[in-house]
Amino acid sequence: MITFRQTNSADRTSAHDVSQMVISPLQAGNLLQEIQQSGSIREFLFEMTKDGHVYWIGAAVPAGTTDYSKVQVFFHPTVVQNGHVHAKDTDYRTFTGGWSGSLQRYVAMQGGQLAGARKTALIVPFMTMAAATGRAPDYMFATKSAETLNSIMTAVRDAVTPSGAAPPATAPVQVSRVAVSSFSSGIGFMRLFIGTFGGTGLIVETTDFDSPFIIAEKNKPMTRSPGAKGRVFSQVGPVHPQSGWVTMPIASFRNIPTFRDKGPHAQIGWMMFFTASMGSALN
């Protein structure tokens, strides 16, 4: 049995605008530009219990979304990087510490950018370091994979039901189209997801935000899913030309002041989802 508990407060679950600086779809010559972008979303945080184990999933639903059979799935970077712990596996069950303090921000950050381009729901499955094994019980999609994804999207749809209204008298959501993306070391989780769902035909697009910048990913080919459109946005070019690979040289960020102190890697991961969504195959 799979059950859900929505934990966000009303100020987040009500429609609210998310304004942020993003990388523009338009360039000035060879230089990237940033623009202010705003999108209206409803933001949710679900505690999912499956087979006695707790998992957490964030969701952002752009205002006006009606089709929950399609979904954008985004994987955040690993919570331990070069010995620095952004969130502890031991805090996961209660979603405290770095999970709520650092990782949860990706829901509004990417969801707000998506809302400026598409009326498609976004989910962010929060992944512990243990989940990287791809095995149960740590990896939430390891068992009952399709049922889990459909149940998540049914919970998202039902959470959007106006307060006081009767639950939707419709069948559970059956997901039919998925676009999956990841930032930085989140590529490992995206590969797990492709390994789980790639053979089903559900995945129509994969998008990698700057994993080639990571030493461990250097010179690796684009991560693809069978039959899906593949994309990479990176400051590092491919070893051999690959369709769908967009190279964003460090010099092209000269006119991007937002997050300059964090460098192009963060700027790609935190500011590029809007432009990527504009050209998404999931429409």
Structure description:
This protein has 283 residues and is an alpha/beta fold. It has a single domain, classed as Rossmann fold. The chain is built from seven helices and twelve strands. The chain starts with a strand and ends in a 5-residue tail after the last helix. The model has no long low-confidence stretch (mean pLDDT 95).
Q: What layout of secondary structure does this protein have?
A:
Elements: E1 2-6, H1 10-13, E2 16-28, E3 31-50, E4 53-62, E5 70-75, E6 80-81, E7 84-85, H2 98-103, H3 105-115, E8 121-125, H4 145-159, E9 177-183, H5 187-197, E10 203-209, E11 229-234, E12 245-247, H6 264-271, H7 273-278
Parallel strand pairs: 5-8, 5-9, 9-10, 10-11, 11-12
Antiparallel strand pairs: 1-3, 2-3, 3-4, 4-8, 6-7
- What's the structural domain tally? 1
- The first-level CATH class is given as Alpha Beta
Overall radius of gyration: 18 Å
Q: How many DSSP helices?
A: 7
Reported for the largest beta sheet, the result is: 10 strands, mixed
Give the overall silhouette. globular
| Overall pLDDT | 95
